[in-house]
Design brief:
7-stranded mixed sheet, two-stranded antiparallel sheet, Rossmann fold, alpha/beta, 11 strands
């Protein structure tokens, strides 16, 4: 395809949230976050293996496929991107075609991960959690599918302080909840930033606490909103004791 052909198809596929470089054609050149998500990937990608040969990758909420495509560039053996938005998936498939990168894309809800039995070496869970009505449930499902590392990113609001959690809290003592480092999820009843799917926005302490609760131990923090986590035995425990009997 010529640049004109690519530009025409980019326009036909509607508004793009991710700015991809399709052989010189930018898909979202006037993004309000700048060159997004490439500007974040420069930090995140530096904390990941430069080569991913032989590894399998699951990109949850893949949007137009930026991260899935980058992993394939690094030699990942199998890359699967899932999203609940058919328009984003059409964009992702077109981008993969233009760039001649073999990536699978499926129309699938994050909650449909409950039916998946395949585990992936790397799971990307970027920019998804705050769009979910049931965020911890989805995180538990994603943790179960993670073999080596999860790359997790969420929007953060509120105090950036963190503090070690206590083993227990006294029922009559309300003071811990007022501490800056106590985990908090901010609930958006109507809309945030013009998006009614923004439901829960954590502070940093809550994001890290939720990861640990799901059986994911942060091992790197390459940029303010992103953690790279290793699965622990708790991920299987949560699945077997909390989830399996309810599905």
């Amino acid at each position: 395809m010529t640049s004109a052909d690519i530009r025409q198809q980019v326009k036909a596929l509607g508004e793009w949230f991710q700015n991809l470089d399709l052989k010189g054609v930018a898909t979202a050149p006037r993004h309000y976050l700048g060159d997004y998500p490439a500007n974040k990937w420069r930090q995140i990608g530096a904390a990941l293996p430069a080569r991913m040969d032989g590894l399998s990758v699951l990109d949850i909420g893949c949007n137009a496929g930026f991260h899935a495509l980058e992993c394939r560039r690094r030699g990942a053996r199998r890359v699967l991107g899932i999203d609940a938005d058919a328009r984003y998936l059409a964009q992702a498939r077109f981008a993969a075609e233009v760039l001649a990168l073999e990536v699978e894309f499926e129309h699938r809800s994050v909650y449909a991960l409950a039916a998946m039995r395949e585990r992936f070496d790397y799971v990307f869970f970027l920019g998804v959690m705050y769009h979910l009505r049931y965020p911890l449930y989805a995180l538990d499902l994603a943790a179960r599918l993670t073999r080596q590392r999860m790359v997790f990113q969420t929007m953060l609001r509120g105090n950036e302080a963190t503090a070690p959690p206590a083993a227990d809290y006294d029922f009559w003592d309300g003071s811990p909840f007022a501490q800056p480092g106590f985990p908090k999820l901010h609930f958006i009843e109507q809309s945030y930033a013009g998006d009614p799917t923004n439901w829960w926005i954590p502070n940093r302490a809550a994001a890290e606490a939720m990861l640990r609760s799901a059986g994911l131990e942060p091992v790197a923090h390459p940029e303010a909103e992103t953690w790279i986590c290793a699965p622990t035995e708790r991920a299987d425990y949560v699945w077997e004791r909390e989830l399996a009997g309810t599905l």
